[in-house]
Amino acid sequence: MNPDAQVHESVLPVVMLLTSLVPGLVIFFLREDQVRLRTTLNMAGAVAKVALVAVLVPLVVAGQVQRAAFPWLPGVELVLTADTFSLFFAALSSLLWLVTTVYAIGYLEGAPHRSRFFGFFSLCVTATVGIALAGNLLTFLFFYEMLTLVTYPLVAHRGTRAALDGARTYLAYTLGGGVLVLLGVVWLTVLVGPVEFTAGGAAAVAELAAERPGTATAIGLVLLAGLGVKAAIFPLHRWLPVAMVAPAPVSALLHAVAVVKAGVYGIVRVVHDVFGLRVFADLGLLHVLAVAAGVTIVYGSLRALTQDDLKKRLAYSTVSQLSYVTLGAALLSPVATAGALTHIFHQGIMKITLFFCAGLFAEVLGLSKVSQLAGVARRMPLTAIAFTVAAFGMIGLPPLAGFVSKWPLALGGLDAGEPWVLAVLLTSTLLNAAYFLPVIHTLWVRPPEEGARWVTEPHRVRSIEAPASLLVPALITAALTLACGVFAGWDYSPWQIARIIAEGSYP
Amino acid sequence: MSALLLPALVLGPLAAGAVAAVVPRERGRVRAAVGLTTAALTALACAVVVGGVATAPGHEVRVALAGWEPPLGIVLRADAASAALLVLTTLVGVAVSVTVAVRDDAGGGPAFWPLWLGLWAALHGVYVTQDLFNAYVLLELVTVGAVSLVALGKGRSAGPALRYLFVAVVGSLLFLLAIALVYAEAGTLDMSAAAGRVAPGPLLTAALALTLVGMGAKMALFPLHSWLPVAHPAAPAAVSAVLSALVVKAALVVLWRFWVALAPAAGGAAHVLAVASGVAGSAAVLWGGLMALRQRRLKRIVAYSTVTQVGYLALVLPLMAPGGEAARAAWSGGLLLVVAHGLAKAAMFLAAGVLTAAYGSDHLEDLRGAMRHRPWVVAALGVAGVSLAGLPPTLGFAAKWQLLAAGVESGQWWWVAALLAGGLLTVGYTAVVLRAVSAPADAGEQAPEPPPAAVPTVQAAVPLALAVAAVVLSVLAGGLAGLVADTAPRGLA
């Protein structure tokens, strides 16, 4: 939070939560066949949330912070704040929730248990926005654990043995991490009282670090280890590739909108707004975090190389790309911080595009392996274009979104006096190219396999290649990937907002 | 007003129990009507008393029966702790009464009503008594009611009921011995008066130890727990809910009250006993959790979960010991946990009752497809499990937060570890249940899902209502915790 911002007591943060909580709770009670009402509720909630964010962004950028606090237990409050950083994350998740909702409605058309699915889907976004708006560690923890719980039924949604196993692994990892976060938060709260997020670090925590560096280091490590599970830092990342058994819209939630983002967002909040970068560096934890992130970047990319299952390849790519954010957050350089924050947004829109496309290939043609995709661009050119744009973005080619966040990360590495970061980023970029280019090559250049079902089956030439509700979201996010790169100079672009937030971390 | 209603809380249900007993057995509907009316009136009276406690100076409502003050007369006293227990008992009591009223099978037949109303009266008595001997008598009443209710279960419930009776009576006798020791030393049976007249020494230590063991047996504290996973599942569904949610709490309250009044005078010996309670509690958390993971019957899973939660409650004694901030947090956390566990456990046992009624068995294999056919009952199991595990957004989270804060505050890391590990085990066995009822859709080798029998809608809705109460109360946890923390004991220091 910007220390000289004006704070207004306001109900708007609560309304932000209610826009998805209320539709979610109502949807649970709808019958399966009430499709129209369910769709209306879903879309109304999603649109209202985006509209609220759009109203709040100019206010908050102008220095007005909206805050709502509720007494909970003696001495601790639940606090919701709409400051620049929280709104940045809330904007990402509500925007992507909107497109994912459209996609999910199309994806699940006619499938069983849709009321249950969309109910938990809305709760999932409620928890994510709660995480974004959390004004202190307790509130963050509250929604962080809630997110785990409401995502579990989504991962298990298909009800197959593989889905249940994947969901169990997901739950075991994330709740294990949650226990550590709980311990860290209780520990810190008992020692210094409830810690509100403050740009540059809370004064009380800095005092603790000066007086009892050992305890402060232990708390920092516990929190990082706990948050590292959702942020998929090696070796805590194993749940992420397993959870890809979930339906495509859920993968989008896990990889772009909610779960992994909650992890990296938490890490940034803890490092920058609880401890403060300098305190964290003095405790020696910043370096630990940077190295862990560096290792994860290379490890994730290497594992992605060998995956033939498209969603698995994308999952390992997420493992790697997320640690870009962690790495940037762990460098003592304003440019790197801005790059890391921008990557939270950019990785979201790029990865969601890729998962939308993977879902399209699987739904329309029944193809889930990279090796099966030969020549598919001829049958689904728009999907292939969206995939290609997002993949190029991931590699970091200008003028796409990925470039805008990777370039400052590399600069920041040099700025912070850590030249090894440059080597990590270059290696990873080469590896990204090595696992994405073959897919693109397969899609566009290789001839279709003899006798593939989609080749032999006639396709109605006049109709578009896929259901519009699946295709349009993918095209929108692909267009955003391009727009975020080209218009990075606009006042309200993710990059510009990220720079404003980053400045706050260096008081 | 609330002082007038305090005796009515005990005498009202007792009188109604007597009325229900004289209604002929075949007139089940009349007995149910008596029971429901009593439940409604009791709920109203409880609301007034709790309101009175919240607004009274010092958060205490006190009434000397017939104007006789101690040492001659009997004093009833409702404080913040009583208020928490009254809230829990009212919610669970109404839920149980409604369940049995719509389906008397759930209570084990018409004999349920007199026994349950008598038990309800005795529970209220335990919460508000100040007198040691009265506490003993009321506990015995609770035991008699509870054991008879277990025996109402179908099939082989006589054996478990008898086993329960033996353990409970032995526990009571140990407590009686402790009371005799205190009386010999202090010359009074009033708890707060006795507190000022006892001196540290072997007599007081023995009294504390006897109470700890005696009440430990009655509330199934590890290693004295083995009767519970047998007795609680053997009882009818509604009775299991009462036993796990309320009856174990009666022994717990007596232990806590006795401890809070007399342990500070005992010096170092009390610290040793507190640690013993903590060790037993930690072992209970781990053992109960591991055993729950191994069970294949729903009611036994839920029963072992009670063993775990009783372990948590035993941790309150060492957590409170250092006094100050830790004692406040531990005391309020402990009482929040009593309420949270009661609501969740009642929801789980009543949900198990609905599923047993629908599928004719509580074997997890037979419950396949319950997720599809009884989603609200499964939802109740899930939400209750989340509250038991101490995860947000439930009352269980507020309770666990306070207990963890107490542990961290006073640097008692062992108990913190037990609290955290117990949470994970709880999620584990809840997930086992959820997985079993959702039954993999692609499991070709399994028999098709059995079709469920019809269950009254009201009965199926009650567990979810209790689970939702655990979520809603989490928002109000602050008021309750503040009330309780204001009157927290000062610990042993």
Task: Please explain how this structure is put together.
The complex is a heterodimer of chains A (507) and B (493). Chain A is mainly α and 507 residues long. Chain A has a domain at 284-507. Chain A has helices spanning 12-28, 35-61, 84-107, 114-133, 137-155, 161-192, 203-211, 213-230, 239-242, 248-257, 259-275, 277-282, 285-305, 310-329, 334-365, 376-379, 381-395, 401-415, 420-444, 453-456, 468-486, 494-504, and strands at residues 6-9, 64-73, 76-82. Chain A has a 3-stranded mixed sheet with strand order 1-2-3. In chain A, strand 2 (64-73) and strand 3 (76-82) form a beta hairpin. In chain A, helix 2 (35-61) packs antiparallel against helix 3 and helix 15 runs antiparallel to helix 18. The relative contact order of chain A is 0.10. The model of chain A has no long low-confidence stretch (mean pLDDT 89). Chain B is globular, with a radius of gyration of 21 Å. Chain B has helices at 2-22, 28-55, 80-102, 112-128, 132-151, 158-186, 191-195, 202-218, 228-234, 237-262, 268-294, 298-320, 324-359, 370-373, 375-388, 395-409, 413-438, 457-486, and strands spanning 60-64, 75-79. Chain B is mostly helical. Chain B has 2 domains: 1-266, no CATH class; 268-493, no CATH class. Chains A and B meet through strand 2, helix 5 and helix 6 of A and helix 16, helix 17 and helix 18 of B. Chain B: One of its GO terms (cellular component) is plasma membrane. Chain B: Residues 1-20 form the signal peptide.
